[in-house]
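Trying the structure run again after the queue cleared.
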Amino acid sequence: MAVDFASLLTDRLNAASNGSELPSIQQLVSEYAAADPRMAVVAKYMALRQSRATESDQSAEEPQIPLETYQKIKAIRQELDQLRQRNDALAGALGACYLCWGTQVTCPTCQGGGVPGAYQSDRALFDELVSPVLPQFHLTQSTRTRADGHNGEDGQKPKEVPHG
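Done. Tokens:
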């Protein structure tokens, strides 16, 4: 007795509505292949493809790392992203290449010509990052820093830049 694929599929759907598990397409094709030899080739192809996909998935899995190591990597990545943002902002404020600051002739952006001032600086970034520092360099004779590190005007020692 010949079984057509639509009837087989309908029977399986009816069985599933009565609580039976739905078979996979590969299982349906394999079952139909028992009645139609032409479908046996399709079933064999699907089985081979599935086994190769499973092998590929297993070899592509990433190695498992301890949670503590993952958290450290994540924190380092966040810090790197923040430092890159700061670097890019300062390079923009000073009109420099954000990748190498003009120090690498192999730089894909500037070919070593991106020193500070080489490009139009971003005025808003300049005002935010550089302008607050400029008064320290425009000191008059009476306000220059003495050899002992104290300011001649108010006797206060200048603030040191914190080092991370």
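Residues 74 and 80 are 10 Å apart (CA to CA). Worth checking whether this holds up in the mutant runs.
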